[in-house]
Amino acid sequence: MGDDDAQEETFESTDAGSSHTYPMEGGQIRKGGYIMIKGNPCKVSDVSTSKTGKHGHAKCHFVAIDIFTGKKMEDLVPSSHTTMVPFVKKEEFQCMDADDDGFVTILTPSGETRSDLKLPDIMQPAPPGAAELSQKIRELLKEEKEFFVIVQSACGIEQIMDTKVMTN
């Protein structure tokens, strides 16, 4: 009955469906850890906790730096409530080339090449030190040195954060 006119389903998404964040109690997050503030993944630079007040919870005041833009952000979270923490990953890839449009070609651990990462100064908004890092990458390529780019990824965003020259 329904089999004759059944249409084949197509799935457009290639995402595994995993979340970019996980919940953590506010009081468990320490300096140097990560936290989501206003939808941005941030690295905590300072935490201060107030005492329990007349109306309940002790509060944690977080001062953090956005890991991609370098902007200072602040948030106030009750220490017993959960807040979201991003999954942050750093990987090293061998850098092969950078084209005129600012796209970098890298070699993945599986031996495949990728050309979807941009030089840091092409990113919008550009992170602090982006122009110097992009210049350093172009110089290393010009000198034909073998080096890695350190790529930080969180919340579906990937960005080149640093370089590491191979030593023989």
Automatic annotation (TrEMBL):
One of its GO terms (biological process) is positive regulation of translational termination. Transmembrane segments: none annotated. GO terms for molecular function: ribosome binding; RNA binding; translation elongation factor activity; translation initiation factor activity. The keyword Protein biosynthesis applies. Keywords: Hypusine, Initiation factor, Protein biosynthesis. InterPro entries: IF5A-like, IF5A-like_N, IF5A_C, NA-bd_OB-fold, Rib_uL2_dom2, Trans_elong_IF5A_hypusine_site, Translation_prot_SH3-like_sf. It comes from the Eukaryota. Residues 1-12 have a biased composition (Acidic residues). It holds the Pfam family eIF-5a. The keyword Protein biosynthesis applies. Coiled coil: none annotated. Residues 1-25 are annotated as: Disordered. eIF-5A seems to be the only eukaryotic protein to have a hypusine residue which is a post-translational modification of a lysine by the addition of a butylamino group. Residues 87-164 form the Translation initiation factor 5A C-terminal domain. Translation factor that promotes translation elongation and termination, particularly upon ribosome stalling at specific amino acid sequence contexts. Binds between the exit (E) and peptidyl (P) site of the ribosome and promotes rescue of stalled ribosome: specifically required for efficient translation of polyproline-containing peptides as well as other motifs that stall the ribosome. Acts as ribosome quality control (RQC) cofactor by joining the RQC complex to facilitate peptidyl transfer during CAT tailing step. Belongs to the eIF-5A family. This is Eukaryotic translation initiation factor 5A. It comes from Chrysochromulina tobinii.
